[in-house]
């Protein structure tokens, strides 16, 4: 059994989508401060964190783009939705800022030799981290899914899909159309994944990415992990 960490680090000023607040991280106390309880002297260290529920590797909740009062917040989504079978499609050749079409998704699925089953998680390697991580373009130049490709995934009754970028579709209108399609079709997506290239060609695997239990949360950071047999 092999574990592949699909999560990005969280640290001070971790890159986030421009519409969300930054990650702010600082020392709350450290080992320079001597504390005392009764006759016992000790030190301890802790950080203070301020962050969006969309910070780092995270999963969106249905209520993020669905205005229906009955749309679930992240604490209301069943935990079994975050422990699924999964596959990873190779679309790392997609041009920057490109909207990936249904035909391109179908070709990537064919090349993978896999099928998409109901309640799967579908991860999509678009080569974002390899090409853009550490540059200003990471927040603006990524490719993503055309809205019809989102519907194509929903037609296959997936639970969610995941990408490396800060959005599931290219910046601007395509991004908002993709989010609205997820809301309309009852699926969701993960953003800011890591190490997807390590899953290409590996066949089916187990995906785990449990959210924090944020009351009313519109999303949550997750520790995303792929578990491969053998």
Number of beta-strand segments: 15
Shape: globular
Number of domains: 1
Calculate Rg over CA atoms: 19 Å
What is the CATH homology-level superfamily? Putative cyclase
Average pLDDT, to the nearest integer?
Answer: 97
Side-by-side strand order of the widest sheet:
1-15-13-7-9-11-12-6-14
If you consult CATH, what is the topology?
A: Glucose Oxidase, domain 1
Major β-sheet profile: 9 strands, mixed
CATH class type: Alpha Beta
What is this structure, in a nutshell?
The protein is an alpha/beta fold.
Structure description:
The chain is an alpha/beta fold and 230 residues long. The chain has one domain (58-228): Putative cyclase (Glucose Oxidase, domain 1, 3-Layer(bba) Sandwich), CATH 3.50.30.50. 17% of the residues lie in helices and 26% in strands. It contains four helices and 15 strands. The strands form four sheets. It has a nine-stranded mixed sheet with strand order 1-15-13-7-9-11-12-6-14. Strands 2-5 form a two-stranded antiparallel sheet. Strands 3-4 form a two-stranded antiparallel ribbon. The longest helix has 13 residues, at 173-185. It is globular and about 70 Å long. The termini are close together. The mean pLDDT is 97.
């Amino acid at each position: 059994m092999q574990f592949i960490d699909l999560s990005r680090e969280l640290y001070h000023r971790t890159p986030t989508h421009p519409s969300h607040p930054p990650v702010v991280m600082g020392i709350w106390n450290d080992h320079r401060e001597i504390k005392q309880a009764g006759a016992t002297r000790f030190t301890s260290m802790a950080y203070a964190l301020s962050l969006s529920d969309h910070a780092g590797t995270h999963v969106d909740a249905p209520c993020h783009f669905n205005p229906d009062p009955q749309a679930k917040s992240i604490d209301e989504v069943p935990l079994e939705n975050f422990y699924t079978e999964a596959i990873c499609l190779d679309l790392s050749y997609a041009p920057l800022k490109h909207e990936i079409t249904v035909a391109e998704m179908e070709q990537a699925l064919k090349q993978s030799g896999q099928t998409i089953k109901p309640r799967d998680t579908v991860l999509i390697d678009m080569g974002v981290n390899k090409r853009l991580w550490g540059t200003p373009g990471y927040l603006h130049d990524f490719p993503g899914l055309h809205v019809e490709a989102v519907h194509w995934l929903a037609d296959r009754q997936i639970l969610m899909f995941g990408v490396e970028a800060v959005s599931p579709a290219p910046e601007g209108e395509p991004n908002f159309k993709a989010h609205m399609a997820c809301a309309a079709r009852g699926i969701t997506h993960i953003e800011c994944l890591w190490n997807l290239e390590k899953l290409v060609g590996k066949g089916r695997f187990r995906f785990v990415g449990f959210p924090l239990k944020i009351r009313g949360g519109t999303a949550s950071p997750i520790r995303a992990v792929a578990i491969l047999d053998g």
